[in-house]
Amino acid sequence: MRHILSVLVENKPGVLSRVTGLISRRGFNIESLSVGPTEDPTLSRLTIVMIADDVAYEQITKQLHKLISVHKITDLTQEAAVERELVLFKVHALPEKRNEIIEIANVFRAKIVDVGKTSLTIEVTGTESKLSGIEDLLRAYGIKEIIRTGIIAMSRGSKVS
Amino acid sequence: MIIDREYEEKNGLGPFTEKQGKTMTGAQAIIACLEAEGVDTVFGYPGGQAIKIYDALYDSKKIRHVLARHEQGATHEADGYARATGKTGVVIVTSGPGATNTVTGIATAYMDSVPLVVITGQVPRSVIGTDAFQESDIVGITMPIVKHSYLLQSCEDMTKTFREAFYIANSGRPGPVLIDVPSDLAGADMVFEYPSDVNLPSYKPTVKGNARQIRQAAGMLRNAKRPILYIGGGIISSHAERELREVAEMLQIPVVATLMGKGAFPASHPLNLGLVGMHGSRFANYAVTNSDLLFVVGARFSDRVTGRLADFAPHAKVVHVDIDPAEIGKNRNPQIPIVGDARVVLAGLEEQLKQEPCEPQTKEWLDQIEEWRKEYPFYSPGLAATSGSISPEGALDLLSSMLDQENSIVTTEVGQHQMWAAQHIQTEEPRSFLSSGGLGTMGFGLPAAIGAKVACPEKQVVCIAGDGSVQMNIQELATAAIEGINVKVLIVNNSALGMVHQWQNLFYNQRYSETLLPDIPDFVKLAEAYNWQAERVSDPAELEAAMKRLLDADRPALLDMRIDRDENVYPMVAPGAPLDDMIGAVNVGPISEMIDEHEVGGR
């Protein structure tokens, strides 16, 4: 099962490698990972997406809790959460195809952020299904490069994770 | 460990040290931190990036430094010191190779939950990351084998870091903590302010068990017909021996112990069934397999205990007490999980049981176990084996009877001799059988004995060693001789790497690939070169007198005891076999049919 973990950690050198090292040496693979500062400058937030069965998932969260640098772990899979990821597509786009591609981008509320002689760079934000939707359509024109930020997520309502 | 302000005030520790508020160098502050923590002994080895720390240590009147002959030796010595006392062991080494040489020692302590603080010199901050001379990323290298680690970034963080390190190492589930100190910080000036407390919002071990779960556990224990207490090192780390005994006696529950739990329950107690697992007694393993309730305290269902996990105690419900939530449900799902300190939880249980006393229900069960005990005792042929050589089992029975168990500590290396020691040394007291359980580190026993003897000079400390493993830290013979640390070494010498030899004998068609050790070195000459007393014995008739000379020596002494190469440790649960399927000198089970199937590994 796919899990989204929101992990609040000390904002110190080496903490990221403690967390990722622990996950990999216990035999799990990270699907995506994003890291950034929080409203409290002494803390950073990691959003980790991983596939694990229930037993493995329980073990990994318990092990993560044991790290002194880990303050809090929230499983955003279990609750209503806003989930976002930003993707940049560099799409093969000869001048005669540009308008078609821009129309597709508009449908997905994506932005054109760069235009080259034979390419368009498109920025799009959303959930995984929306992103794979636009990816499928753009593939017809030839995608030269994709860069994804990894998922970030936040619980809905007034609750803080 | 909770910081006890009153105790610190009375003894001039913590923020009450006389050095509080004084200006000093970072190196002097490190020594002041150790003094503030009440450290009386450190083990280590100097080097370029540790010179400043050693220079400051030169002035300390409170700290004894034991100079090892290898940093791995120093780390195991600190570990032996910690295991023998419950206090935190301290190691000081230099950067680069000094630091990397501690790795096996740190991993050993981590696997067995031993509190250590390891201080490593580091190159100056300005050249970190440039592959400077004797630079190694020791924080990175040790990340998977420490409870926590620090790379000191400034002198302002110094005292806070040490306070936290000692607190983390010796609270919750204990473990090693590493502090890497760039040498420019050791040279900088600073004001020494030792914090009175630690502030670690992310680290709050659960000590008190959930009251409702303890109540449920009490109910289950009362009603169990065939209960077993399965205990591990957690009993010893939390000083739960009295509470354990109380609960076991009230309910008349027999006790099996892991290697790490040996000594937590007295060997002579009628409820004691001794070692469980791969080389546990047949009666202990049968008892576990047939139990209807397994009450597990401070143990972790290690593969060396369970055999084939799916067949481990197949009819039993499980109550699992551990301070580390990650151990609960890791290998076996308990019916009742209780996260908490073993002593506190057992005390709570004791109280529950006293409130509603009940008659123990286990008479039939105990009778059954006594039958097994009579039918399948540990093999012990007396001093002479059938081959005519000294029998290792008999020799260790003899040693055990010659030791005053309340004033002795036995350490072991790793291998056959370790298992014979675990089976035949009748340990009565906690912290008196020290062995590398989780990592299985050959080379642990001799330095651990040195550390234990430094901690407990009034005790007789004997290292039971193999001829293979004792060579892995043999240089520590010098440490003992020069520092006047009167330890004894009994080498159970079979001229082989005995445990692997045994597996090759049983499972690899007697193809003894690289396990035969010719008689080099001559251990007697070698020990004498280190100014030890030493002799060799191979005649069973001479063993007792030789053993007596070993134990009575007023300086470090070694006995090279020769045994037959083909001696095997029995009983044995083959890797991958269920616990009640044991190979042994008697009643060979269906084991021979599965010899081709098991996974293989380990010394």
How would you describe this structure to a colleague?
The complex is a heterodimer of chains A (161) and B (603). Chain A contains 4 helices and 9 strands. In chain A, strands 5, 6, 7, 8 and 9 form a 5-stranded antiparallel sheet that branches. Chain A is elongated. Chain A starts with a strand and ends in a 6-residue tail after the last strand. In chain A, strand 2 and strand 3 form a beta hairpin. With 161 residues, chain A is an alpha+beta fold. Helix content of chain A is 29%, strand content 42%. The model of chain A has no long low-confidence stretch (mean pLDDT 93). Chain A has helices at 15-25, 54-66, 98-107, 128-139, and strands spanning 2-10, 30-37, 43-51, 70-75, 81-92, 111-115, 119-126, 143-148, 152-155. Chain B is an alpha/beta fold and 603 residues long. Chain B is 35% helix and 16% strand. In chain B, the strands form 5 sheets. A 6-stranded parallel sheet of chain B has the order 3-2-4-5-7-6, sandwiched between helices. Chain B is globular and about 70 Å long. The chains are: A alpha+beta (161), B alpha/beta (603). Chain A binds chain B through residues 10, 13-14, 17-18, 21-22, 25, 55, 58-59, 62-63, 65-72, and chain B through 139-140, 143-144, 147-148, 151, 168, 200-203, 324-326, 329-330.
Number of helices of chain A: 4
Largest sheet of chain B: 6 strands, parallel
What sort of overall outline of chain B do the alpha carbons produce when their principal axes are compared?
A: globular
Percent in strands of chain B:
15-25%
> How many beta-strand segments of chain B?
22
**Average residue-wise pLDDT of chain A:** 93
* Low-confidence blocks of residues of chain B: 585-603
Most residues in contact: chain pair: A-B, 21 and 17 residues
Strand content of the residues of chain A, in percent? 35-45%
Q: Compute the CA-based radius of gyration of chain A.
A: 19 Å
- What is the approximate shape of chain A? elongated
**Helix and strand composition category of chain A:** alpha+beta
Poorly predicted runs of chain A: none
**What is the tally of beta strands of chain A?**
9
